[in-house]
Amino acid sequence: MRFVLLSAVTAVAVWLVTFLPLDVEVSGGDAGPWARIGVFLLVGAVMAAANLILKPIVDALALPIKILTLGLFSLVVFWFMLWVTAWLTTLVPWAELTIGGFWSTLGAALLISIITSILSAVIPGARR
Q1: Which InterPro entries match (predicted)?
Q2: Which of 81, 96, 100 is nearest to 24 (CA)?
C-alpha cells in the first residue's frame, strides 16, 4: 500500500514539473483524461521503483564522490534516477517520459525530489 501511495505522490510531482519550462514531458494517454492519469501513475510507479531499488546501490557506489563534494553529488544521483525512469518508460509503447539537457533536467530532478518529500510528509502513510 505504501508503494502505491509513493507512486501517486511521485506522479503528482512529475505532473507539476511538466508545467515548468524544464524540458520534462510525458507523452501518451491520448484516449482521455483517465488514460492520461494512468500514464502519470505509470511514470510515478517506475520512478518510485527506481528510487527504491536502484538508488541505494547508486548511493553506495557514489559515496566517495559525495564525501568529496560535501553531498552535492546527490543532485547528480537524482538526475540519474530521472534519466533511468525516462529510459525505462521508452520500453512501454503507450507512455513515455522525455527529458532534455542535463542542467534543466537537473533542476527538474531537484524539484521532483523536493515536491515528493513535501507530499510524503503531508500525506499519512506515504512516509519512507
Answers
A1: Phage_holin_4_2
A2: 100
- What residue type is 85 in one-letter code? T
Rounded to 5°, angle at Cα 47 from 46 and 52:
100
CA atoms of 117 and 127, how far apart (whole Å):
9
pLDDT on residue 45: 95
Question: In angstroms, how far is the first alpha carbon of the chain from the final one?
Answer: 12
To 10 degrees, the CA torsion angle through 110, 111, 115, 116?
-40
> pLDDT tens digit string along 1-57?
889 999 999 999 999 999 999 889 998 888 888 999 999 999 999 999 999 999 999
Q: Are 99 and 93 in contact (CB under 8 A)?
A: no
Can you give the pTM of this predicted structure? 0.90
24 φ, ψ to 5°?
-120, 120
Q: Which positions ≥6 away from 88 have C-beta within 8 Å?
A: 46, 50
The amino acid sitting at 98 is T
